[in-house]
Amino acid sequence: DARVTQTPRDKVTEMGQEVTMRCQPILGHNTVFWYRQTMMQGLELLAYFRNRAPLDDSGMPKDRFSAEMPDATLATLKIQPSEPRDSAVYFCASARDSPYNEQFFGPGTRLTVL
Amino acid sequence: GEDVEQSLFLSVREGDSSVINCTYTDSSSTYLYWYKQEPGAGLQLLTYIFSNMDMKQDQRLTVLLNKKDKHLSLRIADTQTGDSAIYFCAETRMDSSYKLIFGSGTRLLVRP
Question: What is the pLDDT of residues A5-29, one digit of tens each?
Fold first, then answer.
């Protein structure tokens, strides 16, 4: 069955390194979301795209984070340089146009920055 | 999730009913949702309710919506150990129909 896929599933890196997380939305879905989940802050919306255009990235620290959709089958979230406070689980979700706007979540990328 | 609030934790015995509560602040909410997150996984939509309804039933799940009090609840009948998870309440609003506003999640523990 159709699923959102994310790579890598786990990433351990050192402070200052660049991190790139990838997401493949469900085929035919035209809206893609990036979330970050931590124990302290809960689930935060970082950015989202509709038809590959960024609609809202107000939740994202602009100085180090960037999100792109090079094509309809790939969304990327990049952190450069990474910091220990970026350690979290990053989820991608996708949705298609529907009255009730169901979002389908990927399994997440667990990022640890040492 | 500052606009959507939930209690952090609920513990019930297997076979009992669980009731998870949520309050929201925006009266323009169009749809309200319950998502479930199992350990090590992403969120999965359990059920949703349109804002002009006050109740929805789906097998063991009953959603109640009180628009006047801006209160949403999820009742799970005959709770099983497999229901242990984090449950998130969420809303969409008229001004931003693509975006979900999530609560902080309620961790449900089902004791055998």
Answer: 999 999 999 999 999 999 999 999 9
